[in-house]
Every structure is written in structure tokens, then in C-alpha cells.
Amino acid sequence: MRVALGGTRIDRSRTIHFRFDGRTLAGHPGDTLASALLANGIHLVGRSFKYHRPRGILSAGAEEPNALVTIGEGAFAEPNSRATMVELYDGLVARSQNAWPSLGHDLGAVTGIASRLFPAGFYYKTFLGSSRTWTGLYEPLIRRMAGLGPAPTAADPDAYDKVHAHCETLVVGGGAAGRAAALEALGQGRVILIDEGVATPPLDGVRLLNRTTAFGCYDDNLVMAVERVNDHLPPGERRGPRQRLWQIRAKRIVLATGAHQQPLVFPNNDLPAIMIASAGLTYLRDFGLLVGRRIVMVGSSDAADELRAAGAQVIEVAAIAAAHGRKRVASVTDGQGTRHRCDAVLMAGGWQPAVHLHSQIGGRLSFDPARHCFVPVVDPSRARLIGACAGDVPVDRPSAPVAGPNAFVDFQNDVTLADIDLATREGFVSVEHLKRYTTTGMATDQGKLSNLNAITRLAHNLGGAPGSVGTTTFRPPYTPVTFGALAAHDRDQFIDPTRTTPMHDWHVGQGAVFEDVGQWKRPRYFPRDGEDMRAAVRRECRAVRRGVGVLDASTLGKIDVRGPDAASFLNLIYANGWSKLPVGRCRYGVMLGEDGMVFDDGVSARIAEHQFLTFTTTGNAARVLDHMEDYHQTEWPHLKVWLNSVTEHWAAAVVTGPLARDVLREVVSDVDLSAAAFPHLSWREGRIAGHKVRLYRISFTGELSFEVHCDSRFARPIWEALLAAGERFGITPYGTEAMHVLRAEKAYVIIGQETDGTVAPDDLGLSWVVSKSKPDFIGKRSLARPELQRPDRKQLVGLTMDAFVDEGAQLTAGAADTVMLGHVTSSYPGAVDEKPFALALVTGGRQRIGTSLYAHFGGRSLRCNVTDPVFYDPEGVRLHG
Amino acid sequence: MVEITRLPDATLITVRCSPAVLDKADLPAGLIFPRDANRFATVETRRILWAGPDDWMIVDERDAAPDLLAVLEEIFATHHVAVVDVSGNRVRLRVSGRGARELMNRACALDLEPPSFATGHCAATFVARTQALVMQVDDTPCYELLVRRSFASYLADWLVTAARGLEPLTGAQPFPG
Fold it and tell me: What does the alpha-carbon distance between residue A262 and residue A398 come to, in Å, rounded to a whole number?
């Protein structure tokens, strides 16, 4: 009911309209949804979480636990909005939540009558049955009955902004204390003042963020805040992002976040129109309305005269034994047993400083018995607190909690005084256990209006003071934050950075199908004329085995290792030796962890006496460089060596197949490409299309192969020159899928596919790589452990079978066995004959060659013959070609 | 209006050495290696960035690699120095125009306001979760980014998309006073 007094925030000269549950209502600019509903005499705005009890508006601010509504429609809908924080605009559409079929007649309220069946811990107690009872009966029932507003199913069409800001002083809270602190800090650099409110007047020289809530405080003075840029405007008037996330790094933080007046606990204290006393006053002063005509005040009489002056009848009582009413409070029984008719109750349960941000960064609290609240312990190394949040709060005269039915402590999670008492009786005496068992303080309001009462009750039950119980941990966010604001720009194609090679556009032009390899986009295959993957891969494999193929291998990691100790350094990093590798030659190397397990593999080339180029796997490039830097800086700082990533400086094209040399002869100058002059595992420098290139004879297919490496700036013309030169030889671009088939036939392992951190070199048949003569290298000591000498370790073998087997399939000795002997690591149809083959890690695998095993996958069992893992050209004649 | 421009590829050379070597080496006037952290020096078409305590990045807009590499090799011949051609490693992007800093504040967590970051300052940092060397090249302010080549398309798209969102911006007013 509007009155003539007060109303500083509203413009009474203008009327705007909004809808609540389909009803069109009027309000004034400056109203919140809560004040506009109250002005229309609407107190019942929602149904509670568990018992579907009628609930109203409890507060006038961010602490509101009850009045949660859904704002907007369709994909724009924002569930669980606090009506006290929603600014009214013309055309606003709001809906109540958790009520069916309607707010006034909620069938779910029957659970309220049966509330004794839902005591504290009911999740743990009631549903101990078969898991089918849970998933089939209870869970769907609970999800339908007890819930917050439904999230929209469509993608969020709104835009969000996210920005970093820096300042010397950050003040959180735009009340009198905060504004004074902001002005005081002006001489000491940049000042940012954050305020949740809408009408904080600007301060000269201060960057003021209105409609902004600081919801998290983190290490090193990082404060996260969300600004509601457009939420207060009708949709047609919105410009720019809906909300903006601020990530503010401040030299100094001043908290002036105020305090929250607490409710009192008595039976039916949750009835609509029972409100926090200070909220009743705010509705009068800011919005010019009385929350009732006949108001009972309990716990404080501070506002009584002001309410009377506005026209209300005010009855002051010292305590309330119970409230009565159905959808709105109709009367109360006071501490003496006298019944008072009323249409609103204002309760003052003491003020709790809003210490959330202080506590999030580890600030301590102590209990102040005089003011009956937790106050922050001053710590100069942390944020400074001033005003009410520092403990400078008014003193109420809260009455003791009254037990009885429906005496609520946590309004949003429907936790009653009886639940707290039950939890104590059942032995939950730690406040953290109490919280988890009863769920008190765990709702979206984070217990701003319940924690103090819950802690006080627990302490009372234990015969101590609240200070001895302590508080639960304060965690961000202070108030809920929409995911859209947290993601902001990093959505859709920007959800993760994507990396592309210099030839990427060419691949796209050829219709390549890409796969993600880490952040890289790599062509998986190049389908032609409606080919499916299998047909394309078969064609690409055959081209390499019979003619010539070309692969974009630019993603390989490349590390320039140089300095007088480069060879010594690699001797320590790799399991194999490097000292004797001549300039111009390359060598395959395996890198182990300290545990002796294979960490990475790849070829390194000796570029000069004191310079190597080390290739890493695509996925491990950064990790290997970090690993090498780490060992250099911490273990062997005396070694004179520099490590530089040149991964992206060198683009790479692999030309491979029996006709590879014929293709290169067409385009490469300055190099003798003959096998005698340029043997397998060597490198030469030459030119293609006028640009310098390095050619490496490295084969990952088992065929004659040349890797053409060039400065990435010129990769596209060189790639195209190779394609043009190869045209008459039928050169075929191939992708990672064909690459995998071709390498698997040669038993060339892929780190992360054949290895999983438990695989040693010998397990892969790579003991020939491991140096017997070097005094030390990473992993050497571990290789000598008995565990790594066991003959029944899992070893790499090949499998052949009549049908295709899934990668990851488990292997057993007999068809009906349950003892797992290993698993399939790679499985493909053969490159040319298309006969299924696989690689597997099998216990004592090398001893089992010639026997059979059974692979189990998808409910099937398949007989497999164990073979040598090298299926193709075991003598290596072709790659030496 | 913020402008995001891809600049022509340049010659990029990494020089790794202890600062003490720079004191001893006989450096010509055109090669100024900044000793202060996060600063770069400009001589004609060439910039040298402090990229780490033992790490400098030379950016030359001319195609200078073969000559410059030879010169540097000779200067440092008797020292433990790595001179590595990394011209292909990175792409240059420029962020300029009104709102350039506002856009960078969205992409980068550093304090980009003077005196924390000003013309002649550089930093190795993340820009839109992409590793980059950031330089402020004039007071407008205008920024140049050296970003790993594989990330360049992603980063440019990110910046262009975020810049589009900045246009109707109301809340990005500069600090008053």
C-alpha cells in the first residue's frame, strides 16, 4: 500500500506496467519487482523448495532467500532472480516458481503437511533402497516437486562482456562509509567504487560501478564483480552486453559491504508478510509503501514511530511464540500468550556484518556476544573493513528461538529448528557437518539470513557460545552469477583456442574433414566425390603404399637445442646416445620419465656440431620443452645449452611412397636425392620454389619418405609446388587416419595410444634404443628395478583376426576367462588388403606369439592370433629405398 | 573504432644469452638490447624486445634475416649465445584506434595503463588465452602483438568479435581526471 511519505527512489509521476503470473500490474520507475508487488498488496510470491509452503518477500536486498522468480520468457528467461534486486521496467514479465498448478493452489503443498516425513538428512535416510527405487521413483519425484526455476533449454541469446581492470584502491559498497573511503583514497591513484545500488551519485575522480555486485575475493587482491548493464531496461532499449564481468586487481581493498539484519525463529515465521524489520523501513523510505496496516514489531522498535507517522498501526511485542495464517500472516501469539491480529510482522534478530569477501580471502572472524554476531578480526595484510561490515552495527533485542512446527532457520532450503536439533542429537556437532546434513546455508542465498541462527542453535544445543562453534567456510559467489557472464567472449568457436597450420586454408579448400589433436585442427582425411571415411582412408593408404602421398606434419613439436653441451644435454634427456651422431644425420630417440616409463619419442637431427633439432610428438611439444628447461635449470645448470621452440617456424610436408623421390626431383634443387648420397635418417638443405628447405629422410609410414621443412611464411607456395610436381605421379594428400594405419602396420607407436605412463621401452620392443654405455640419463635407475625386469610385463604384440576389433577391447586367454591379460591399443583394416589387424599390450606378450587370445568388446568375444607387431616390410627394405 | 590489422610478416630472431655477454660484446649502434625488463628499443625498422632475463626478440620489418643472422653470429662468435631465426614462428597483429585499450583490457589481464604499461613497454603474456608478446608502440595507444602463427586466426577472430561488442559500449569510460 503506497503512502504519501517516503519514496525517494521512485518517480510517482509516472506509471509503468508489468506482468506477474499473467496479471498486469502497475508500478513506478525506480521500483524493484518486490516493492511493486508489495505496493499491489501481493505478499505471496513463491513456494518453498521442499515443503511448497507459501512464501513472501523477506528482505529488501541481496540477502533475499524467498522471493525467487523467473524474469523474461523463452531463451531470455532468467530463473531464480531475487525480486528484491530486479529493477522494474515497463513490460517486465515475471513468473513465480516451484508452484503447480498455480501459486495460490499448489498441490505440492501437501508435502508441507507431511513435513515430518522429510527431516534433516532425509536424502540419506529415506532412500536407502535399491538403486532402481531411487532412479525410478524418488529422484523424478523430488526433481519435479522440489526445485528452483527451470533453466531455459535454448542457447542464451544475450551477449556478455568480461573485462580486466586495475586500480590502487577498490572500495566495495557505496554507502556512507564506502563513499568516504573512496574520497579519502583519491590522492593515492586510481579508485574504483562498486555499488549494488542503482542511484549512487557519482564522485569526482572515482570510477563508479553502479548495479554491480562484487561476488568473489581471491588471492592477491583480485575481486570479481558482475555489472548488470542492461537488465533494468525494457528489451527494446538494451544496447551492448546484458551483463559485464569485472576482474579487478587492486593494490588495496576497502570493504564497506554493510550488514544484514537477521530473522527470528518461531513457528510459522515463514508466512508471507513476516519480514525483516529494516526491510519494512526501506520499503517505506525508498519506495513510499507500507508493508501492512497493522504491523507487529518484535526485537526492535527503531522504526515504529516512522511507520506510525506513515499511517500504520504498530504493536510492539517482546517475543513471538507463534504466527498464524495461511497465505499471509493474520495474527501472532506473543511471549505472554496474547494473540494479536495483524497483517504484517517486522522482526529484528540482530545484525550480522556482511563479512563474505573478507572471509573468502581467509580473513578470520570472532564472535561478539554484546552484538550477537560474528565480527571480522582486523588483519592489515588483508582488506580493510569499515562501517557496518566491520561490526559497527545497531543492537537489536532478539528473542530466543521458539521450537515448534515450521519454525524455519533456512528459508530457502526449508531447514527448521527441529532439523538442527535432530542433527545435534544424531551427533552432527561440527558446524560443517551440520551444514551438509541439514543443508542449512547451502541454498543460492548462501545462508545470509540463516547461518547465524543455525550456529546459535547448534551452540545452544552443545551448551557453548556461537564463537566456539565457528562458521562454515565462505566461498564465492556472494550472490549467484549467470554462466553467460563468466564465459562472456569465450563461447561458441572461442570456447578454446584453435591452432591451424600454414596449409590450413588449402585443406579447407580441398574439403578435408578435420580432427582435433590437442588444440590443433588436423585433416583426418580428404574425401572425394562422396567417399565415406573408410573409402577415403583406403584410397589414401593405397596411394602411399603404391605411389606417393603427402601429409601436413607442421604440428610436430620442434626444439632447437644448441650450445657446446648440446649433445651432453641430449644424452641425459634421452635414453639413447647422441655423441656419435654425425652432422647431417638423424636418429630416433625415446625420452623417459624418472620412473623409466616412455614419456615422448621422436627423431632428432644434428644440424651442426653444437646444434640439434629435436622433434617431439604434436601433443607433447610444450610439455617436452618445459621438461627439458626444468632439468636444465634445476639439475644441470652447468651445461652450456640453449633451448628454443621452433615448432611454428618450421612447416612440414611429408612426401612418402615409392614415387616420393620422383616427385622431389621435379622441384628440389641443390640436393643429390640418390639413396647413396642421401640415405635414410639423414638430412640435407636444398631449395624449392626459390625458398630454402630442409629435407629429412624420416619415415613414419614404412615407405621411402622425405619430410620437407620450410619457414612457415613460405609454406603455402612450397606445399603447392609439391602438389603440382606430384600431379603426374598421382600424389595424394592424406590425413591423420591414413597416417595411423600406415604407422601401425610398421608398429611405430603413438605416445598416449600405445603408451599410458606405465609402458617402458622394452615393453614396446624398443630396448635397442636404450643406451647401455651412458653413465646416466633420466629414467636409467628405474629401468634397473626388478619390476621392469619381469618377463610377464605387458608387451607390444600384433593381433590378426577375422573381424574388426574395438580399440580398448580387453584380452583374455580363453573365451570364457575373466582374467584380463591386456588390451587392444590400435585397430585398423590393413592399408592395402584391408584385413583387420591390431596392436595390443599383453602380459608376457612376446612369449605368446603364435598362440591365440580372445578380445571382448560390445558384448562380443573374438578370437585373435598373436603375432609380431611389425606387419609390413619387417626388413625395412622399402624405407631405405 | 578499434582496428585489428594483420601486419606483413617480418624477420624475427631470438637471441638467448646472459646479459653479461651483451656488456662484453662489440655491438653496433643499430643493435640496442634493452636491459630493463619488459622494454623494447626501436631503431628504424628494427625493434629489440626484452622477452626474459636471458631472452631477446629482434623484429625487423625488412627481410633482414640472412644478413642480420650473419652479423649476430659474428658478434657473438666467441660467446655462449643462441641466435635463432624464428621468423616463421609468429604473426604480427596491430590493435589501434579509439577503444584499443578497452579491447586489450578484455583480452589481457595486465594493467595496461601508464605508468604500469606505456609506449616502449612490452610483455610476454596471454591475450585471449593465447601466448603473445605485447608491445605498446605509441601513446594513442596502439599495440602490436606477436602471436604464435597457429593461433593467429583464432586470436584475430576473437579480437574482431569482441571489438564488435564494444561499439555500443556505455561502461568503458576512461578514468576521470
Answer: 9
Asked whether residue A807 is domain-assigned, the answer is yes
Find, in chain B, the residue whose alpha carbon is nearest to that of A710: B88
Q: Where are the alpha helices (DSSP H) in A574-617?
A: none
Chain B residues within an 8 Å CB radius of A249: 109, 111
- Identify which of A716, A717, A502 has the alpha carbon closest to the alpha carbon of residue B89: A502
Q: Kindly tell me if the per-residue pLDDT of A217 is higher than 80.
A: yes
- The CATH architecture one would assign to domain B10-85 is 2-Layer Sandwich (3.30)
Considering the domain architecture, whether residues A810 and A832 belong to the same structural domain is answered as yes
- Closest residue in B to A250 (Cα) is B111
Residue A277 CA to residue A661 CA, distance in Å, equals 89
Contact B82 A562 (CB under 8 A): yes
Helix (H, G, I), strand (E, B) or coil at A436: helix
Q: Where are the alpha helices (DSSP H) in A370-473?
A: 417-425, 431-438, 451-462, 466-469
Q: Which of A695-704, A866-875, B3-12, B63-72 has the lowest mean pLDDT?
A: B63-72
Asked whether residue A561 falls in the same domain as residue A549, the answer is no
Residues of chain B with CATH 3.30.70.1520: 10-85
Question: B89-166 adopts what CATH topology?
Answer: Gyrase A; domain 2 (3.30.1360)
Domain end position, chosen among A742, A758, A779: A742
Output the pLDDT for position A130. 59
Residue A45 lies in a domain: no
For residue A91, give the amino acid letter.
G
Looking at the complex, report in whole angstroms how far the Cα of residue A249 sits from the nearest Cα belonging to chain B: 9
- Look up the domain containing A120 and give its range: 114-144
With CA atoms as reference, report the closest residue to A800 among A737, A863, A872.
A863
Instruction: List the single residue in A501, A644, A646 with the smallest CB-CB distance to B150.
Output: A501
Q: Of A148-162, A549-563, A655-669, which range is least confident?
A: A148-162
Residues A446-457: what's their mean pLDDT? 95
Q: Residues of B numbered 83-122 whose beta carbons fall under 8 angstroms of chain A's beta carbons: which are they?
A: 84-90, 102, 105-106, 108-111, 113, 116
Please judge whether B128 and A166 are an interchain contact, meaning their C-beta atoms are less than 8 angstroms apart. Answer: no
B157 contacts in chain A (CB < 8 Å): 493-494
Q: How confident is the model at residue B170 (pLDDT cuts 50, 70, 90)?
A: very low
CB contact residues (below 8 A), chain B span 36-65, against chain A: none
The pLDDT-based confidence of A236 (bands split at 50, 70, 90) is: confident
State the CATH number of the domain containing residue A623.
3.30.70.1400
Q: Which residues of A touch B14 (CB under 8 A)?
A: 644
**B-chain residues near A240 (CB < 8 A):** 165, 168-171
- Assess whether A712 and A606 both reside in one domain: no
Q: Do A549 and A657 have their domain in common?
A: yes
Note the pLDDT of residue A382. 86
pLDDT at position B175:
37
From B58's Cα to the closest Cα of chain A, the distance in A is 14
Closest chain B residue by Cα to residue A521: B150
Contacts of A24 (CB under 8 A, 6+ apart): A17, A18
Residue-wise pLDDT for A508-527, tens only, equals: 999 999 999 999 999 999 99
Answer yes or no: do B172 and A227 touch at CB < 8 A: no
pLDDT surpasses 80 at A565: yes
Do A802 and A839 belong to one domain? yes
The count of structural domains within chain A is 4
Is residue A627 located within the same domain as residue A699?
A: no
Residues of A in contact with B153 (CB under 8 A): 498, 500, 504
More confident residue, A121 or B25: B25
ipTM (interface predicted TM): 0.94
Say yes or no: A694 and A806 in one domain.
no
* B130 vs A: CB within 8 A: yes
What was the pLDDT predicted at B171? 40
Buried b (16+ CB within 10 A) or exposed e, A350-389: bbbbbbbbbbbbebebebeeebbbbbbeeeeebbbbbbbb
How far is it, in rounded angstroms, from Cα B129 to Cα B146?
A: 14
Among B88, B110, B161, select the one facing A648 at the smallest CB separation.
B88
Cis peptide before B141 (omega within 30 of 0): yes
Among all residues of chain B, which has the CA nearest to that of A494? Answer: B158
